[in-house]
Design brief:
single chain; 200 residues; mainly alpha; Arc Repressor Mutant, subunit A; 2 domains; elongated; HTH-type_TetR-like_transc_reg; DNA-binding transcription factor activity
């Protein structure tokens, strides 16, 4: 007699993958990439270190996915904002809000990206840097259109200064309530961009 029962197909648990990504961001932000082992990540994720290899080939592969998710989200939000047809000033406000969500809402990922991208394989590092440049170009495009008093080089300088202002609190705690911090960061970046912090 032929047993036509089939073995259940094992699927990778997306919730477990998310826990691995979250644990990696937290551990690497606190301790640095080279001080965190797969066993550490596994323990923080509630699995063994060896079980991580069912999801990721290496520790750097975990970082690559973390960074891809973060940059893809920023880039998609920026493209959606530019395609929405809203006014230039409001579009810049939304880009600022998106960057604040990254810096404040995804603080550990932002810290790790800033400090650890050099630990990635060169091909991944270059690919991520290209995405980052595309994201910056969305900002520059808006500033070029809005600030006709600036040439392209000046517009780029303004954009980098604004993003620098937003990322200025990544590595120290200012002790402010989160919503107050978000407001101060938004006001500071918009002032650099030459945009009113309130709609008229």
């Amino acid at each position: 007699m032929i047993d036509d029962r089939t073995e259940p197909v094992r699927t990778r648990d997306p919730a477990r993958r998310y826990r691995i990504l979250t644990a990696t961001a937290d551990l690497v932000a606190r301790n640095g990439f080279n001080s965190v082992s797969m066993a550490d990540i596994g323990a923080a994720s509630g699995i063994t270190g060896s079980a991580i290899y069912r999801h990721f080939d290496s520790k750097s592969a975990v970082l690559v996915e973390l960074f891809d998710i973060a940059i893809d989200r920023l880039l998609a939000d920026a493209e959606r904002t530019l395609d929405s047809g809203i006014g230039l000033e409001q579009a810049l406000r939304e880009l600022v809000d998106g960057q604040i969500e990254f810096v404040v809402g995804k603080r550990e990922v932002a810290q790790v990206y800033h400090n650890e991208i050099h630990n990635l394989p060169e091909d991944d590092r270059r690919r991520l840097r290209r995405k980052q440049r595309l994201y910056i170009e969305e900002w520059v495009h808006l500033v070029d259109e809005l600030r006709t008093d600036l040439d392209d080089g000046e517009a780029r300088a303004v954009v980098h200064a604004a993003i620098g202002a937003l990322q200025s609190t990544l590595f120290h705690s200012v002790g402010l309530p989160v919503e107050r911090l978000r407001q101060i960061l938004a006001d500071s970046a918009l002032a650099v961009l030459g945009v009113s912090s309130t709609t008229t």
